[in-house]
Every structure is written in structure tokens, then in C-alpha cells.
Amino acid sequence: RPALPVHRSARRVAIFGGTHGNEMSGVMLVNLWVQNNTEVQRKGVEVQPFITNPKAVEKCTRYVDTDLNRAFTPENLSTLGGGDLPYEVRRAQEINRMFGPKGSPEAYDVIFDLHNTTSNMGCTLLLESSKDHFNLQMMNYIQASVSNSNLYCVCCFFAGLEVGPQPQGVLRSNIFESMRDILKHALDFIELFNAGMEFPPCTVEVFRLSERIDYPRDDNGNIIAMVHPNLQDCDWEPLNPGDPMFQTFDGKTIHYQGSGTVYPTFINEAAYYEKQQAFATTRRESLVASAIRKA
Amino acid sequence: MKLHESQGGTHPQGQIGFSRVAICGGTHGNELSGVYLVREMQKAERKAKERGNDMEVITVLSNPRAVQRGLRYIDTDLNRCFTHAMLSGSNTNDAPYEIIRSRELNALLGPKGSRDAVDLVCDLHNTTANMGLCLISYSDSDWLCLHVFRHLQRQMPDVPTRFIHFNATNKESYSLDSVGKHGFALEAGPQPHGVMRSNIYTTMKMGVEHVLDWVCLFNSGFVFEGGSVDVYTVVRNIDYPRDRDTHNITAAVHPQLQDRDFCLLYPEDPLFLTLSGETLRYKGKEPLYPFFINECAYYEKGIAVSLARKRRVAIPAIRVQTEQEQQAKKDECTSEEEEE
To answer: ∠ CA A69-A56-A160 to the nearest 5 degrees?
Structure first.
């Protein structure tokens, strides 16, 4: 029998909610599981639900001083300064201590960072690396198990589980239950993997992040056009050169001028106005995940 | 419903013309349609003034600091700061920003209740609820507002447009639109706060244009025929179920109610779905119309859904007062004063 790539057991799993304090599904799920963790218990794995940004959750705001989800830089994690540091930098250091350090043997094996988006993205698993066969296999397992087909995988620069569309500060029942369902199957996968199940090679469709497209702005930096009605809510649908992209306030259309077809995502995400992003383009790829089995 | 004689069957009521109309956006800084529409109108200021008929359109960004920070408010909800008590009183050093601002707005557009107040305040809002376009007013008998509403409905047949009446007889009006002699809020949804949806912006823009068109028509002497409109009068609000200790919500709006604003809610219909999967049902005796279903900003105000009764309201024919009528009115007032 050929040797299968092996992967160590996933013994410790963390579920983060409230990294952005107004993304309510994760806040509610983690609060629920902190009170009563029955639903997330699995044999052979320790699952820790955790609110990462409690001050932002309390104020129901994305962040207090700075975006926690951009705070995990090497400089931030190593800097001294204690109480003078921005709140989220202190939180990043604390979280890195508790669940990391990132890349070290003491770090948690899997972390699910729960997010919501105002974009019509369905359920999106964000992966940092396209070579992470464990995560690709987990993705494949979840896709085969969930009832809805609104599940996507993005190779990005941060990891997480993103479910939308949901306004900030709002809890929608269907969005909440979708996220809950995804996590259920993800934990099932981990339990099966830890028990020694072999997962044969599989093909997973992923969207690789390509470009960030900002809103058209005037010389003062003010937005002068909106996402076009033809593009609004069309995350994951092909955007071809010449397709409508933006609509100015007096009704003129601005067209996509790229060289080829792209798959837009994060279309009109509220939090990205300040990050100069109207949407992101991705390219579709088929990745082959190697077979894996527990070491 | 029969019209009274004084509302005169076919004889239109003469109403005073609108010489000053205020369009306000950004009363809540993260409700973006109004923010951007006011900005665009201010850019095209000269165009707006060219409407003629001696009508002045004043555009106002109500809460600039909140707009700049993309927040609903800085210290307190500006749209609750317009009671007479809050408007009077002096600015102290630690006064909330919105109180200082409400007094500035009252000086600009009011004073509330006085002869100098603008004739109409149209305050632009967005909601996360699936409410289409709503005209929200404290009165169900301000014929000018009801005629404006009917005009919007007729001019925008593809947009679900409704009139919501907050019965404020028991308590005082507190919102920005109460500063003008006439006023209403124009609410468009669904749109997440902090987001600009092009379809919602277009709806709001068209709505404001039709409001201003109506005012121009009115000022020019056009006679608007009587008729009737549906009015939704708020009866009560329902809060989320909450944890006794933390006050955190313990259930979400039920999927069968979510997005079904203005679809009649019957006794025993689902209201909430708890985190443990239990359905909580509407226990009222009377079927009512729900709206502001799952409005983000109302979590902190303890409102998951508002409920209203719908009824048909007759509106009289109206037209602007002629110069003779205005003179007659003045003479009447003068002679009354002389008698005193």
C-alpha cells in the first residue's frame, strides 16, 4: 500500500466569535457554547469557544481602537507597551499567548474564526494556503454533508468562516443556523479524522484572491459611484470585461475593464469602505487535495 | 368613508404654500442613502434652486460628526433630541454632541412651533428591515403629507410605498421632522447600515424628486383631487426574549417572519426562534401588520418588531391658498387682535 501523507491529530480546536464585535452569528454561537458546550463536544478533541474582542462585542461595534483581524502582525505580537497599546493589539498578544504562538507546536491545531459579511457570499471558508490538505479535505467533507449548495472556498491571506448576507449588528436566524451547521460538520470531520479515518484524494474548487477594486472617487477621496445593480449581490458569478461594475449618482454605468473573466466576492461589504475596497476579484481553480490520515 | 361638509366633497381646501422645504440626510450617520443624496444635492445646489415658484430647498447634513465616523450617533440618538424640553435650555460643557446639534438644527430650520419654521422637513433614513419606501409621520390628518404620499405611490408604482402613522397624542414629538410646520421621515430599506445599495439610493432619490415636484405643483395652484389612502397606525412594539441576568437576546426573529414586513401577522404565527430551536408565537388577539422587523438600531431600544393597524383614510381635495384667501385670513387675524 502506498504511504499516505499523514497529519497529526487535531487535538485542540478553538472557535472564535466576536473578532468583529458587530458580526452577530459568531457572537451568539460562541456565547451559547461558552454557557453550554454540549453541541460542540466531540470524542478525542478539546473544543474551546472564545470571544476574542469582548469590548467590541459589548459596544456592538467592529472594533474599539483598531481592527483585531489585522492586528496579528509580527511587530504587534512582539511589541511592549502594556496599557498604552491599542486595545486590539493587547488582545492579539493575549490570544497569541493562549492559542498560539502561531506556528509553534503549542499552538491550537484548528481555529475557526467566525465572521459575517454584508455581501451575498453564502458560506465561505477562507484558507491561508492552497497547500493545506487537511483544510481542503475538511472543506470537501463539509460540502458533501451540508444541505445547501451555497458553500465556497477562498484562498486568501487570513483564515476564517464568513457567512452572509447579514447587516452588521443584526442577527438573522437563517444565517445563524447556516454557520452552526457548517461548524457541526467541520467538528464531525475532525472527530472522524482523529479516529483514524482515511480521506482519499479529492478535488476542491477554490477561488484564489486576485485584486481589490476600490470605488471610483473624486480628488478629495469621496466615493462618486455605487456598486452597479447588475453586480450587487452577484458574488461568485462571472464578471466579464465590459460588464457593468459601478453606477454613478446620476445613473451612468462604469464597466469592468479587466483582461479576462473574474469571480467577484465581498461585493459591497460595509467594513471595506474604509479599506478602499468595493469588491475583490478571484480566479477559479481546481485544487487536488492529497489523501490524508492521522499519523 | 364619508367626507365631512367642511372637508367639502369637491371643494378643495386652501392650504398655505410651501416656500421653504428642508431635505435632511445623515440624521443617523450610517444611513447612507440620505448622506450621499444630500451631498449630491448640495453639489448641484444651483439646479435645485432653479425649481422656481419661489420655493427654497434647504439641504442639511444633520449629524456631520456621526457621518464622518460612520456611526448612528456620537453620544445619543439625534432623532430623539427634538422635544421642546431638549431644545430649550442652555448648552453646557458636557452636553451630548447631539443635543448641541439639535439646537443648531432648530435654529436653522425652526424654531419648532413658531411662524419662522420651514414649511416642510423631509428627513431621509434607511432601515435594515424589508420595508420598501415608507413615509413616517406623527399625524394621520396632515392632508399635505397624505397627498405627498399618494403622489409618491402613483409616481413610483414599482416601489412598495406605505404611510406609517406614529400616534403621538399621548407624548410629545421628538424627531427632526417635527421641527418644520409639516414634516415626515422618508425611510428606505432593506439596506445594511454603512452600506450604499444602488437600488435603494435610486428609490430615495426618486422619492425626494417626486416630493419636490409635488410641492412645486401645489405652489403653482394645482388642485389635487380628494380620495383615500391606506394608513398604518402603530399599536405596539414587541421586544426580543432576553436573558434575565445579562439582558442579551436569546432568540432571533423567526425565519417565517424575517423580511415579511407588512404581511399580516395572525395570532399564533411564529415570532421568534430560540437558540435551542423553540418557536415562540404571537400571543396577541388581533391580527396586526408587522414592520421594522429586525431593525439593527432597535435592538438597544428593545424593539424586535413594531405592529400596526391598517385603515383607509379619506383625504380632501386641496390646493394652495389664493392671494385673496391669504389676504382675507390676514384681515381676519388683524380684526381679532383689534377686538382684543
So the answer is: 30
Contact B258 A173 (CB under 8 A): yes
Q: Record the cell numbers describing residue A267, joined without a space.
A: 461585493
Q: CB burial class (10 A; 0-12, 13-18, 19+) of residue B205?
A: buried
> CB under 8 Å to A228, separation ≥6 — which residues?
A244, A245, A246, A247, A253, A254, B198
The answer to whether A273 contacts B248, with C-beta atoms less than 8 Å apart, is: no
| A118 at B interface, C-beta within 8 A | yes
Pairing of strands A279-289, A263-265: antiparallel
Alpha-carbon distances of B76 from A62, A206, B183, rounded to whole Å: 19, 45, 22
Least confident of A57-66, A181-190, B12-21, B275-284: B12-21
Q: How far is B64 from chain A (nearest CA, A)?
A: 15
Q: Whole-prediction pTM value?
A: 0.93
User: Contact at 8 Å (CB) between B217 and B17?
Assistant: no
Residue A23's SS3 state is: coil
Q: Kindly determine whether residue A168 and residue B194, on different chains, have CB atoms separated by under 8 Å.
A: yes
B134 touches chain A (CB under 8 A): no
Under 8 Å CB-to-CB from A42, ≥6 apart: which residues? A187, A188, A190, A191
Output the DSSP codes for A186-227. Answer: HHHHHHHHHTT--B--EEEEEEEEEEEEPPPB-TTS-B-EEE
ipTM of the complex: 0.93
pLDDT per residue as tens digits for the range B304-325: 999 999 999 999 999 998 888 8
Residue type, B254: H
Shortest CB distance from A227 goes to which of B198, B202, B294? B198
What residues in B contact A172, CB-CB < 8 Å?
252-253, 258, 294
The residue behind cell 469592468 is A256
List Cβ neighbours of B175 (8 Å cut-off, separation of 6 or more): B79, B80, B82, B123, B185
DSSP state of A38: G
Pull the grid cell for residue A279.
Answer: 469588491
Q: Average of pLDDT values for B258-267?
A: 98
Active site residues of A: 162
- Give the DSSP H/E element, type plus range, for residue B121: strand B120-126
Strand partners, B319: B14
Question: B297 and chain A: CB distance < 8 Å anywhere?
Answer: yes
